[in-house]
Amino acid sequence: MEGGIADFIKTLESLIQNVITIESQLPFIDVPTPNFKISSLTDKEIREMELIKRPIRLKRHYNDEEISCIVAPILLDGIVYGYITSWGYRSENLQLDLSILEQASIFFIT
């Protein structure tokens, strides 16, 4: 990816105005490690994303605090290979944030 994953994250953060993390299940994709603790997604949450193939709203732990977030699956041929998470969201921008993350998750894998 031209510009690197760190630049991709910074661009998303400026668009959405929230902290963004990317988690990859592909060992050859080196994603920046966040400087805070995050909870792993459960198998149930992963299955839900594989089923609906769209970003979902979840509660995840960020530095031991439960935070509302939006998680977008990074899909290829219907299989989840990673996630883009926007930590926290404002209700007034929810639809826009969902749309940006959905497009970002598609762009990331191409």
Brief description of this entry?
The protein is built from three helices and four strands; from the N terminus they run αβαβββα. By secondary structure, the protein is α+β, with helices and mostly antiparallel strands.
Task: Walk me through this protein's architecture.
This protein is α+β, with helices and mostly antiparallel strands. It is 35% helix and 31% strand. The chain contains 3 helices and 4 strands. It has a 4-stranded antiparallel sheet. The radius of gyration is 13 Å and the shape is globular.
Proportion of strand residues: 25-35%
Helix content: 25-40%
Q: List how many beta strands DSSP finds.
A: 4
**Major β-sheet profile:** 4 strands, antiparallel
Question: What's the overall average pLDDT, rounded?
Answer: 87
Termini, distance in Å?
A: 9 Å
Secondary structure category: alpha+beta
Helix/strand order? HEHEEEH
* Unreliable residue stretches: none
Strand sequence of the main sheet, in spatial order? 1-4-3-2
Shape: globular
Give the radius of gyration.
13 Å
Q: Please tally the helical runs, counting DSSP H or I stretches of 4 or more residues.
A: 3
Label this structure with key terms.
single chain, 110 residues, alpha+beta, 4 strands
